[in-house]
Design goal:
CATH class: Mainly Beta
Shape: extended
CATH superfamily: Hcp1-like
Distance between the termini: 28 Å
CATH architecture: Roll
Number of helices: 1
Helix content: under 10%
Length: about 140
Amino acid sequence: MTTGNVQDPYVNFNFLVEIDNIARAAFHEVSGLDSTIDVVEHREGGANTTPHKLAGQTKHANLVLRWGMTIDDQLYQWHKTVVDGTIDRRNGSVVLLDRRGTEVARWNFVRAWPSKYTGPSLSAEASDVALESVEIVHEGLERVS
């Protein structure tokens, strides 16, 4: 067994999010880097033992971004634009960095717009950071590198 070339897995806490015309510095969490292909079953005469399984539509999960609330309200304003009747579609990326800050993976999403905004849960008995979140729908997700 060779031990000279062991690859350590990447850490999940060093990432950034890039969205057209929005300059947010830090996020607490990003989830929804997910896509699923529907399976279409096709039965063919004479082949009665099992149906053929074909690829159907690809569906992409919504991205959910969570961040510590500050004076910066750019993501909320983007959401408000949609609430007011103008769907402002933007492209973006979620970028994973290694411990040195070098990009190691990127997930690009296209034609995205915020479908849900959630303000922080407030409690006089808590000492947590106030977190906001936005759910972003999009029409495609691709992992690069």
